[in-house]
Amino acid sequence: MIFDSIENRKNYKELALIYEALEYLSRLAPGELPAPDTVLIPEVLFCNPVTLTSKPEADCVFEAHRKYMDLHYIVEGSEVIATADPLSLRTTVPYSDEKDILFLEGEKDGQYTLKPGQFMVCWPGDAHKVAMMDGKPGDIRKVVFKIRNRSAG
């Protein structure tokens, strides 16, 4: 898992796909979201805008992926994302190969509050619980990148 600011994107040059996503985000105008289904590299690197209202942690669930990493980038609002080792959680919805997702429940290992200009990268080994509120429900505008996990084949 990585939690950082887009201002530090040059630190990720060695992680080419993450760096490419961050460079793309840095070229967006302040407050701008990409068009839906923006593809930088077909089947490898793509993103979507997401607009949501955060909610209490009890109303959120862990998710994990196998084929793609997630990069969450906050454009507006404040979002809390919890993380955990998926091996320490209980599966509530089995893995869907078609949707590349499984849902889990259990205790978090940590949590991070993301504000505009900050991002989090979640590898397949990082179960993550998104859309959690920072004190009270709030509107969030963000970009979610899917980055192909090279070890997934």
Describe the structure.
By secondary structure, the protein is mainly beta. The protein is built from one helix and twelve strands; from the N terminus they run E-H-E-E-E-E-E-E-E-E-E-E-E. It has one helix at about 15-25; strands at about 1-5, 40, 45-55, 60-65, 70-75, 80-85, 90-95, 100-105, 110-115, 120, 125-130, 140-150. Strand 2 and strand 3 form a beta hairpin. The radius of gyration is 15 Å and the shape is globular. The mean pLDDT is about 95.
What brief labels describe this structure?
six-stranded antiparallel sheet; mainly beta; 48% strand; 153 residues; 7% helix
Outline of this structure?
This protein is mostly beta strands and 153 residues long.
The number of helical elements comes to 1
Order of helices and strands: EHEEEEEEEEEEE
Give a short account of the largest sheet.
Answer: 6 strands, antiparallel
Quick one: overall form?
Answer: globular
* Number of DSSP-assigned strands: 12
Q: Gap between N and C termini, in Å?
A: 21 Å
Uncertain ranges: none
Question: Which structural class do you get from the secondary structure elements?
Answer: mainly beta
Averaging pLDDT over every residue, what do you get?
A: 96
Instruction: Kindly state the percentage of residues in helix.
Output: under 10%
Secondary-structure map with pairings?
Blueprint: E1 2-5, H1 16-26, E2 38-41, E3 45-53, E4 62-64, E5 68-76, E6 79-84, E7 90-96, E8 101-105, E9 110-114, E10 118-122, E11 127-132, E12 139-148
